[in-house]
Amino acid sequence: MVQVRFENVVKYYGRKLAINDLSFTVKEGDFFSILGPTGAGKSTILKMIAGIEPVSSGKIYFNDIVVNNLSPHERNVSMAFETYNLYSHFTVYENIAFPLRAPKWKLNLTRDEERKRVTEIASFLGIDKLLERRPQALSGGQKQRVSLARALVRKPQVYLLDEPIAHLDAKLKFSTQTLLREFAVNYGSTIIYVTHDYREALALSDNMMVLRKGKFDQIGTPEEIYYSPKVDFVGRLVGEPPMNMIDGELIQQDGKTFFKAGNSFTIELDKKLAESAGKNSFKADGKTNTRLGIRCEDIRPSMKKASKNSFQLPVYVIVHEAESSVISFELENTFMHARTSESDVFRNLKGSDMVWLDFNTERMLFYVKTMEISKA
Questions:
Q1: Do residues 124 and 187 lie in contact, with contact meaning Cβ atoms separated by under 8 Å?
Q2: What are phi and psi for residue 80, nearest 5 degrees?
Q3: How many C-beta atoms lie closer than 10 Å to residue 91's C-beta?
Q4: How far apart are CA 201 and CA 218, in angstroms?
Q5: Does residue 54 have a cis peptide bond before it, meaning omega lies within 30 degrees of 0?
Q6: Which pLDDT belongs to residue 376?
Q7: DSSP symbol at 53
Q8: What percent of the chain has pLDDT over 70?
Q9: Neighbours of 164 (CB within 10 A)
Q10: Contact 298, 360 (CB under 8 A)
Q11: What distance in Å separates the CA atoms of residue 92 and residue 21, rounded to the nearest whole number?
């Protein structure tokens, strides 16, 4: 296993800029996820690491060795794609064993050694009963696990996994996530994992990168990404409902600082929050504007006023889930969502009923606006 490092990497497809001066490091033995929307450049990064796509400029290092000019097989990586790419005339066993037999890897395993490797990874992924079947006799989920087994059976310097469980149903996806995490822990492998599903990234990763338009907005642990997003885009991408982003202005009055969200509500900010809001403010139309970010679970709804900063809003809609309820409120330019575990208290709540709300001030964040937030 190796440390993988990007140093000022740029990638063009013709005139289109796909990766924009990207620098980051994946530590040896790390499970590192790359999260981002379609077109962010996630798969391009994997292909450049694998040597399938050349870089336009910059350097890619494996430990301290520049690999830009090394062929794919010289880099000794293993890659699994979202598509299955299975050989239809091979059995499942032969598909999984194929990388072990490839002359370029010079493994020279005996038949017993090969069978041990194949059955071990097949059992690990729960497909050991399928080894004699051919791909056309498998379901989509089974094909995906065979494809994943083929990528994991060899022991390369780094595993590159490009949405390898995207087509699994919810139950299989959860169990396979658990197995992937177990694989990473047991084998201590360097794994770079691409996904557009924030749940996968949070569940699997030691560290993760949020990518947007070929640049990263944030690199950190899952906890840092979820609880302390550095920009509004990260907060909106990670979470369901996504982090509330509320545009407003800062007002100074009687030596105090207030955040005013249009005509919806006004709350007083303590010194620490006022400083954060001031650092992340911008001038527009003669006002000092900022964007407040807060997770739905950090807004406490109540039928009574709980503090001096409590404010009331009419309910737009309430959705009762298995272990909680999500109450939505309509603001001037967006919706705000609050999650509560006290579902019984709000069981008979209806649209337009008034509810008191309090923000957990320790979880309030402020941003300079980098994306549009609308009711759509």
A1: no
A2: -120, 135
A3: 16
A4: 13
A5: no
A6: 59
A7: S
A8: 100
A9: 26
A10: yes
A11: 41
- Mean pLDDT, range 108-114, rounded to an integer: 93
CATH class of 244-367: mainly beta
180: left (phi over 0), alpha (psi -120 to 50) or beta: alpha
364: three-class secondary structure by DSSP:
coil
The CATH 3.40.50.300 portion of the chain extends over 4-237
| C-alpha 291 chain-centroid distance | 22
Q: Pinpoint the residues of the chain covered by CATH 2.40.50.100.
A: 244-367
Residue 83 pLDDT grade (very low, low, confident, very high; cuts 50, 70, 90)? confident
- Return the amino acid letter for 126: G
> Under a CB-based contact definition with an 8 Å cutoff, are residues 327 and 354 in contact?
no
CB 217 within 8 A of CB 233: yes
CA 215 to centroid of chain Cα atoms: 15
Q: Distance (Å, rounded) from C-alpha 102 to C-alpha 91? A: 16
Question: CA-CA distance, 266 to 273, in Å (whole number)?
Answer: 14
For the record, the structure tokens of 327 come out as 């109450």
pLDDT digit string, tens, across residues 32-49: 999 999 999 999 999 999
Burial of 254 by CB count in 10 Å (0-12 exposed, 13-18 middle, 19+ buried)? exposed
Element at 119 (helix H, strand E): helix 111-124
- DSSP lists the bridge partners of residue 245 as 293
Class of domain 4-237: alpha beta
**Helix ranges restricted to H, 214-299:** 222-227, 232-237, 271-279
Tokens 């796909």: give the residue. 18
Q: Cβ–Cβ contacts within 10 Å for residue 106, how many? A: 6
| Inter-CA distances, 47 with 22, 251, 306, Å | 15, 50, 54
Q: How many helices (H) and strands (E) does the chain have?
A: 10, 22
One-letter identity of residue 228: S
Distance between alpha carbon 47 and the CA centroid of its chain, in Å? 19
Calculate the alpha carbon distances from 175 to 133, 179, 298 in Å: 22, 6, 30
Q: What is the pLDDT of residues 125-144, one digit of tens each?
A: 999 999 999 999 999 889 98
